[in-house]
Amino acid sequence: MTTRAEESMHQNIEAAETYGGYLDLDRLLGAQHPRSGEHDEMLFIVIHQASELWIKLLLHELAALRADIRAGQLAPSLKIFARIGRVQMQLIQSWDVLSTLTPHDYGRLRPYLGPSSGFQSHQYRLLEFLLGNKDAGLIEVHRSHPDRFALLGEALATPSLYDETLQLLARRGIAVPAERLARDWREPYRAHEGVEAAWLEVYRDVQTHWDLYDLAEKLVDVEDRFQQWRFRHLKTVARIIGMKGGTGGSSGVPFLARALDLSFFPELWSLRTKL
Question: With contact defined as beta carbons under 8 Å apart, do 197 and 268 qualify?
Fold first, then answer.
């Protein structure tokens, strides 16, 4: 039994009006260029390209979230947080697919990757900057691409999601240390006891500060899933290449392990011990 087209369905349409035209599928599906001739290289390319698309959406949503927080409009953020969570789960689960690549399979295609590495992803760097892990040295790899370099420089100098959250707390009358409200946004955020005390005020009076409390817990969700993504990355790399160095010159697993010690919103974790 076959499904026939309905009479009302459009048959005569210009290419720009089709599904493929709207999504620019010719370019999208033509962007995979395996070099090794190995069957598994298509998997490797598609997983990383798809991840870049999900990161693009994540950046789009997080930028909107930051704007809502800056405007003090927390109600619309509920929808955005829900979508961010779903996108993050897609990124986490992508490692399950890539982990079907065996050490033997990867070894046959690795020479064709050259020095390329996910470390060089400018979108990933934008994501870390937006969440608060600032490091001016990490944009140097993009200096040969002026547009990317300028975009990263702008992101580096823009308050992070957490910076905007602390500004909101202060506007709501919560005592946030002045040095955390007016600082060089290009510098990485450092945990501060005064910020922890500010959050403890929120957490100890949830009824009065419900929306701020809810915002804090949703930020914890974002970081939790981000760490799951990092951990799945580490375990996938360990499974495929063991303790060998990464293609981009990193130490591989040890480099990824150090990232697990980084926190975007440190006081939201440390305060739990004092509740």
Answer: no
Q: In the numeric block, which tokens belong to residue 247? A: 């293609």
Which token pair is 36?
A: 């090794």
- State which residues of the chain have pLDDT below 50: none
Q: What is the pLDDT of residue 248?
A: 78
- CA 49 to CA 36: how far, in whole Å? 17
pLDDT tens string 145-181: 999 999 999 999 999 999 999 999 999 999 999 999 9
Number of H helices, E strands in the chain: 13, 0
> What H or E segment, with its residue span, contains residue 112?
none
Distance of CA 15 to CAs 4, 12, 19, 27, Å?
22, 10, 9, 13
Site of tokens 């050259």: 114
Q: Find, among 151, 148, 134, the residue nearest to 185 by Cα.
A: 134
Asked whether the beta carbons of 208 and 224 are under 8 A apart, the reply is no
- Alpha-helical (H) ranges within 72-185 are 77-98, 103-109, 122-131, 146-156, 161-171, 178-181
Cβ pair 242, 235 in contact under 8 A: no
Longest CA span, the chain: 71
Cβ-based neighbour number of residue 178 at 10 Å: 10
- The answer to whether 99 and 234 have CB atoms below 8 angstroms apart is no
